Sequence to fold (85 residues):
Amino acid sequence: MTVTTGLDFVRTGPGEWRVRVRCETRDTRTGRWTARTESGVAVQSMEMVMIDVGRLGRMVLFPNGEFASNTAACASGTADLGTGD
Fold:
């Protein structure tokens, strides 16, 4: 099973963002995949970014680049950060 999570941030104010999350799960044995999307909000506090995306749960992006999710449908681990360009 492979799980990936994609995050899109749009700044709405100092230390605040609107966020769109896409969590994909792929069964490596059968090749079948599912995707769940949700929108929510993110705030920065104590150098961490805390994300609340409704039915996909809560997530935290830590200053060291680690990402944690409280939902099995979304990935946790080392974040690959990019600019989206």
Observations:
- The chain has no helices and seven strands.
